[in-house]
Structure formats: C-alpha cells, structure tokens
C-alpha cells in the first residue's frame, strides 16, 4: 500500500489531504480524503474513491467520472488518446497527444459539450532536457498561455507562467526528493488589477510505503 499526504498553506487558510493506493494485479484502488473528512468527526465529506488500470481507464465513483485511454499508430507515430465523461459537471472531452521526437510534443484537448479546444506545443531544449517551453493556444478565447520550466540538478525546478486572457503572471519553485517527498512554493499576481497583490501558496507532499 502507498500513502500520500499533502499539505497546502496560504496566507488566510490551510488544508490537508491524504491518498491511499492499493494494487490488485493490474488494477489500482485509490481512496482520497481531505481535512473535511475528520474536522467534525469521521464522515464521508471529502472522501473520494476511484478504480484505475494505468494506461487503460479510471473510474471515479464520487464525481461519476469515466476516463478511458488508448493509443494508435499514425504515420509511424504513437498517438495517445483519452476520453473523459464526467457526469457531475456534465463534461465530455477528448485529449490527444503525439511525440514527434524526444524534444517535440503536441497535444490537443477538445470539449465535446462546449466546443472549447486547446492546442499545446511542448519543446524540450538541450541535451539534458532541462529547459521546457510550453505555448498553449485557447481557440474559444483566442488567447495564448505560456510556460517556461527550468530543471536543475538535485530535483529543483523553476517555472514561470503567463495567461494573456486574464493577465495572470505566476512563478513556481519546486523541490523533489526521493526520501522527503516534494515541496512547492508558488506566487501569482494579476497584472490587470489596480492593486497588484501577489498570492503566495506553499505545498508539501510526503510519500510512504506501508
């Protein structure tokens, strides 16, 4: 059994969650819970159950969400496809991605219910593949989102994002550790607001083998 504990800390509030995963052959059963499950005594609030076969399907019982994955060969390239049907928020979508080579990848996300479509291109620069550029075009909004990630030795990474539609600028520092889990600090500011007050969030993740 694997257990993951996450903590999220903001200026005005904090939250915690835990996920337990049990493998049964090719299947993986997950149970997730938040602090709402225990804050007023044990309850079903914040409890989520899911059944997953990696690379094939995910069934989320709480949101009544079904996700199926498959792949196909097109022009000697592997195209990965994901179909998602979430009855909770009445959302149906198809995602597809293809890697042209180790440095170039493209993905398309299309929502069948609303017609929204996003096209993202991922370019990994350099031989160590430590610099990642991710421009994304939102067809429905006619706007671009940009992300640049720089990875460092030791598991640290720095990511900058900018959303042209909302004029939201973000910066994220992440540290990964095989022994101590991960730690992330992110800050964002809306450049369209008159008072540009940054929002700061810290997140910690611990992984355990049980």
From TrEMBL:
Topology versus the membrane: Multi-pass membrane protein
InterPro entries the record matches: OEP24
Function: High-conductance voltage-dependent solute channel with a slight selectivity for cations transporting triosephosphates, dicarboxylic acids, ATP, inorganic phosphate (Pi), sugars, and positively or negatively charged amino acids.
Compartment(s): Plastid, Chloroplast outer membrane; Plastid, Etioplast membrane
Organism domain of life: Eukaryota
The keyword Ribosomal protein belongs to this UniProt entry's keyword annotation: no
UniProt name for this protein: Outer envelope pore protein 24A, chloroplastic
Major localization class: plastid
Annotated keywords: Chloroplast, Ion transport, Membrane, Plastid, Plastid outer membrane, Porin, Transmembrane, Transmembrane beta strand, Transport
GO biological process: regulation of monoatomic ion transmembrane transport
Cellular component GO terms held in the UniProt record: chloroplast outer membrane; etioplast membrane; pore complex
Organism annotation: Cocos nucifera
Presence of the UniProt keyword Transferase in the record: no
Subunit structure: Homooligomers form large rather nonselective pores in plastidial outer membranes.
GO terms for MF: porin activity; voltage-gated monoatomic cation channel activity
């Amino acid at each position: 059994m694997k257990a993951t504990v996450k903590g999220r800390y903001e200026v005005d509030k904090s939250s915690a969650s835990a996920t337990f995963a049990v493998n049964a052959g090719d299947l993986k059963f997950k149970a997730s819970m938040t602090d709402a499950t225990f804050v007023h005594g044990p309850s079903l609030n914040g409890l989520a159950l899911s059944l997953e076969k990696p690379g094939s399907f995910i069934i989320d019982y709480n949101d009544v969400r079904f996700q199926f994955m498959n792949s196909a060969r097109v022009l000697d390239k592997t195209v990965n496809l994901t179909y998602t049907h979430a009855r909770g928020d009445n959302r149906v979508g198809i995602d597809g991605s293809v890697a042209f080579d180790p440095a170039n990848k493209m993905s398309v996300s299309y929502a069948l219910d609303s017609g929204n479509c996003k096209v993202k291109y991922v370019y990994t620069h350099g031989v160590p593949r430590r610099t990642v550029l991710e421009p994304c075009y939102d067809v429905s909004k006619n706007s671009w989102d940009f992300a640049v990630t720089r990875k460092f030795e030791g598991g640290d990474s720095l990511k900058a994002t900018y959303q042209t539609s909302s004029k939201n600028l973000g910066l994220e520092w992440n540290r990964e550790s095989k022994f101590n889990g991960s730690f992330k600090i992110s800050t964002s500011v809306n450049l369209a607001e008159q008072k540009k007050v940054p929002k700061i969030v810290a997140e910690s993740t611990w992984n355990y083998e049980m």
